[in-house]
Write a structure and sequence with these properties.
The chain is mostly beta strands. About 0% of the residues lie in helices and about 45% in strands. The chain contains no helices and 17 strands. The strands form five sheets. Strands 1, 3, 6, 7 and 8 form a five-stranded mixed beta sheet that branches. Strands 14-13-16-17 form a four-stranded antiparallel beta sheet, with no helix packed on it. The protein has a three-stranded antiparallel beta sheet with strand order 2-5-4, with no helix packed on it. β6 and β7 form a beta hairpin. The termini are far apart. About 5% of the residues have low confidence.
Length: about 190
């Protein structure tokens, strides 16, 4: 005869996280920057951030929020279980030149030849330039919402629509000049 079967559950080191989703570039001292990684049953996440960046929420979870510092760097996540830690997965984050300080107060860097109107608006507005350039509209969390190339073929103009209430930034450049301009959307 035979005895009853005995079972044992075995655990191994977790696999390296599959991906990190989040902004590829942020403003200096940006608040509420969010990074996520897919959930894996029985695994928690260990997030690490560059010096000068502070994790404000979500350590040991799949969604980490931080306040960025004043330098570029990489966000790293590892899977952790009872056996130990996985290899690290990193996402490089570059730093945008978002605001200049003048007398201790932040000011916007604008090109005289760039217009955003109306501003504030209800989620629909026009971006117009006197010269060619590549521009992005990013949310206050650093996610790119629109990308546009202003040039002769579109009469140096682009119409944006469908944005939710919030603060956005038009960032980009023309002829070697960089610009950031705040755009305020107030849907009623």
């Amino acid at each position: 005869g035979g005895s009853a079967a005995r079972n044992a559950s075995l655990t191994r080191l977790p696999a390296t996280p599959a991906s990190i989703t989040g902004p590829a570039s942020v403003c200096p001292n940006q608040v509420g920057v969010n990074f996520t990684t897919p959930a894996v049953t029985g695994v928690t996440q260990l997030w690490t951030v560059p010096t000068g960046v502070t994790i404000t929420a979500g350590q040991n979870t799949t969604s980490m929020t931080c306040t960025w510092g004043s330098a570029a760097g990489s966000v790293t996540v590892r899977g952790v279980n009872a056996c130990g830690q996985s290899a690290a997965l990193s996402r490089a984050v570059t730093l945008l030149t978002c605001m200049e300080e003048e007398g201790g107060l932040p000011t916007e860097s604008r090109l005289e030849a760039l217009e955003v109107y109306p501003n504030p608006n209800d989620g629909a507005f026009t971006v117009r330039s006197a010269s060619s350039g590549m521009y992005r509209i990013i949310s206050s969390t650093g996610q790119t919402v629109f990308e546009m190339n202003l040039n002769e073929s579109n009469n140096f103009s682009f119409e944006v629509g469908g944005l939710s209430t919030g603060i956005y930034f038009l960032v980009g450049g023309s002829d070697g000049h960089y610009v950031q301009q705040k755009v305020v959307v107030t849907n009623r």
